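Sorry to interrupt, but I need a hand with the structure work. It will help me judge whether the discrete encoding reads sensibly. Write everything out right here, beneath this request:
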Amino acid sequence: MATAAAYLCTTAVEAYAQNCKPRRPRPPITLTTLGPCEFNPETFSFAGTPAEQIRCLLRSADRTRNLGPQLDRVPAALASRAGQPDGLPDRDALVAHLIALGLVWDYAPFLWQPLSRARDNDPDAPQARYLVIHDTSSPFIGGRPFPADIDENRNINSLARYMCKDDWAFAHVVINRGGKMLLSRELSEPWRAMKFERATRFGTDLKGLFLHVELVQPRGSMPGRGHRNDARAPDPGFSAAQYERLALIYVIASVRSGRWLIPAFHAAIDAGIRGGHDDPQNFALDAFAASVDRLVHRLLHGEPAVAARPAATASPTAAGPATAPGTPAASAPVSPGTPVAAVVPTATETPAAERPRTQRANPVRRRSVRTVRVSNWRHARSYRYSRAYRYVRPKPGRRAVRVSRR
């Protein structure tokens, strides 16, 4: 039964996900400097104390993609914790919190395992030290205004576009504006999502030193900035649910590391590199710091979990179904001597409608068939190059083409 379920799940993933790996090899990255924050390859860290590093690494890029000056003030909730081993919540309290949120299967079984390590998981290399915050810069809406229901819009918040059926991933975790999460890479798996990490002078030394979180943020074009530029971002840039879930990932990673990770922006690390990114845009540090403070206070004082917003049941068309018991993560041990059943949420603990669900890259999707009428055969051939469709040659004299999803 388990083998059959695993086979059906794998088949569903292949039918629903997409190939994300670039078709062409990415060009090599050659650095002229070690970045504005002065990375030291010998110590695997940036210059200064953790408090000084955070002032440099949490700088945003402006609309011209130029990095701003170092911050004069960093919220105390982040500056006082970064790089320190003190004040970490208890793992058992964190497990109980994950159970209440319905996120136990993807995160709780691994709380007793270390994070990824530098040098592509070299046992002698340091654990991940930095949590890099990105925005997806997608979907792109051109010159149109951002929708009023941006946090609930199914097209904007669909996690399906970030699900990959090959060996590729956009980040370790992707969080949409409704607070749903896609765990693409477990936090113990090294993954590179920045140009700086891929620089030729480092080889694979930096692979595993950074954890990556993508926050869904649509982008639009700005007049006078060139064809198809994506310099326009919504303001506020992110929802309260995204800050809550980002704080949760930050706490989970820090507990597993044994010390608080140092948060960083993608733009600050890739600054000065040709083709560097400007994300995240319009990120509210105070809102993120407040979310971290609330979560830590809740865990240390045993207060019940409160969802950032009511969670809707996941749908295949919006972001794929939620993870259910029986996935590979569900069978992993929680801790030595602790049965998995000890952390399995029961039906009476929290109503399913109130639990935000994490989506892993194993959705179940039914094949859909539709008929598209075309004016000529040349138009029908365009479906051949579409990622989502396959075409069937119509009978002579007919203009109806039967198209089915792959």
In short: Residues 2-366 form one domain. The first strand starts at residue 39 and ends at 40. The chain has a mean pLDDT of 80. The longest helix spans residues 240-257.
